[in-house]
């Protein structure tokens, strides 16, 4: 055991040889909707893989075209408009975070949240979700409305190799509601995911093999597909504010 003099020489408190390492929290996305320049420093337009995914909407937004991804007063608006051509029925907007979510030993805890006004009419398919960078699965859907006023919190895959789904009826999805997920490392390979809506825990799932798998965070306004068809014949909107992403070392 080191004496007080040796402890001092080593730069350690005289009362103990080593101090516990405090938990570190890093806020990765906050205030990103203040301006287009701030937004574009944290988010990319379209999907990580291109301009379409499963539904009937083609994503057309860019840094020079804000007709379908726009900012105003700290609110992000994704706009879908009817369109017929090239096999698509709509033009719409989707964005994804430049920061990937990676649950591992260095950062075993993550929090993802945002306030959303979500459309829920037949044919509208808004989502706030995580999906694998290098492979699929993993997937975690924090917000997903599929043509009705029921939010789907989904995880694929669970320890049985299947989907876990928590279905929550939402009174007036078009009003502001807060959707949040807390991801925590559970053992060597699994991740526990808690889904909250307006501060109330709605479901706890296990993501099997999620540890060490980087994931994209996507805000997606797709159309038809799993939400049914035909979809709306007029312009519709999916809005977000107070977007938040943070990770912790404990």
From TrEMBL:
Q: Which UniProt keywords apply?
A: Signal
Where does the record place the GH16 domain?
14-248
Signal peptide coordinates: 1-19
One Pfam match: Glyco_hydro_16
Q: Does the keyword Signal apply?
A: yes
Q: Which domain of life is it from?
A: Bacteria
Name the PROSITE patterns on file.
Answer: GH16_2
**Gene3D superfamilies for this protein:** 2.60.120.200
Q: Which InterPro entries match?
A: Beta-glucanase-like, ConA-like_dom_sf
The protein's name is Family 16 glycosylhydrolase
């Amino acid at each position: 055991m080191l004496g007080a003099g040796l402890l001092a020489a080593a730069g350690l408190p005289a009362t103990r040889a080593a101090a516990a390492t405090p938990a570190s929290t890093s806020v990765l996305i906050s205030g990103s909707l203040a301006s287009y320049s701030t937004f574009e420093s944290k988010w990319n337009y379209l999907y990580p893989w291109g301009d379409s995914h499963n539904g009937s909407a083609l994503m057309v937004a860019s840094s020079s075209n804000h007709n379908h991804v726009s900012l105003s007063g700290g609110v992000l608006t994704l706009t879908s408009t009817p369109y017929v051509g090239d096999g698509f029925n709509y033009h719409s907007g989707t964005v994804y975070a430049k920061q990937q979510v990676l649950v591992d030993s260095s950062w075993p805890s993550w929090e993802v949240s945002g306030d959303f006004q979500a459309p829920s009419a037949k044919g509208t398919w808004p989502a706030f979700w995580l999906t694998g960078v290098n492979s699929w699965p993993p997937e975690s859907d924090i917000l997903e409305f599929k043509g009705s006023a029921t939010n789907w919190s989904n995880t694929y895959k669970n320890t049985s190799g299947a989907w876990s789904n928590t279905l929550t009826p939402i009174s007036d999805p078009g009003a502001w509601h807060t959707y949040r997920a807390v991801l925590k490392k559970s053992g060597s390979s699994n991740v526990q995911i808690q889904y909250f809506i307006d501060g109330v825990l709605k479901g706890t799932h296990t993501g099997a093999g999620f540890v060490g798998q980087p994931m994209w965070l996507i805000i997606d306004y797709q159309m038809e597909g799993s939400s049914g068809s035909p979809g709306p014949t007029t312009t519709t909107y999916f809005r977000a504010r107070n977007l938040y992403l943070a990770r912790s070392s404990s």
